[in-house]
Amino acid sequence: MTQKRHTFTDAQWQRIELSMPPCKGRPGGAHRPFFDALLWMARTGAPWRDLPERLGAWNVVYQRYAYWCKKGHFARLFQGVQQPDMEEVMVDSTCCKAHQSSAGARKISGPQAIGITRGGLNTKIHAVCDVLGNPLRFVLTAGQRHDSKPVPELLDGLQAKALLADKAYDSDKIVQASRQQGMQVIIACRVNRRKNQRVLDTHRYKARHLVENLFQRMKVFRRVATRYDKLDITFLGFVHIAGIMKSTELSEQRLIALWRNCIEGVMNSGLIFPDLPLIPGNDQKALSQRCERRRMELRRALPCLD
Asked: What is the CA radius of gyration of the chain?
């Protein structure tokens, strides 16, 4: 059972293999054992020297991992496995404790987004996800940097219908830039905002919990919950591996939950039982949109529904 938690399933590997970069020069070995070793490292958070022998020599795996991070292969793989639903996008950030082993790198070695906060040394992961809670992009900053700073980089080129975010992203610059990209802004206003106050669509705003759930699912990986890597490119590689895992997995329990939510949304919207009283106004519209989103997620998970 423990070994299954540290390996990709056959269905996941079929999606990953389609986006695998071409091999140039001397072959570096089979891809799947290499990814199983990286998944074991991401799950356990163990030092590289503790890598089990059945997964390969630790120094060979590390050198190959560092090379792939430098070439950007993990970022391209992460983009390749995505099947985004751009009805809505959500942005948020989370802080990761920086372990003592993450300090000490020379400045000329590369960017090191580690900052000092009241909780100690931290790195902040900024993420944007689609309407189904699947990650789209990640950006690293120091822990003391404000959440709204990397938003232009996260949203650059995204064609979505709406943007959901909490009060930390309530700034005129973000609102104007999002509207120029054709997005409806669903951001809670700060308490001290006096000008240009917006009416919040509370029913659509409730869906913002999906980006919080994304961070909760990704922090199952100890190498993401705590930063052990000195350089940003190597830490971001594990973040992308966690994103690949979460973009390709769909457990049986999640399928059952999707079925339950889909049926609940259909019943509440009165599509199956017209005798049920319909909820007037925006409530009814929100339920219909929720049902449609669940149906689209189920169709993506189960091609037989097409």
From this structure: 21
- Amino acid, single-letter form, for residue 292: E
State the angle between helix axes of 282-301 and 252-268 in degrees (0 to 180), rounded to the nearest 10.
150
CA distance 175 to 169: 9
- What is the DSSP pairing of strand 120-129 with strand 89-98? antiparallel
H helices within 171-281, ranges in order? 172-180, 202-205, 209-218, 222-225, 232-248, 252-268
Give the pLDDT mean for 49-53.
94
Helix (H) or strand (E) holding 78: helix 73-80
Provide the pLDDT for residue 244: 92
pTM for this prediction: 0.80
Contacts of 155 (CB under 8 A, 6+ apart): 89, 91, 128, 163, 177, 178, 181
The interaxial angle of helices 31-44 and 10-18, nearest 10 deg, is 110
Domains in the chain (CATH in brackets) are 2-80 (no CATH), 89-231 (3.30.420), 252-305 (no CATH)
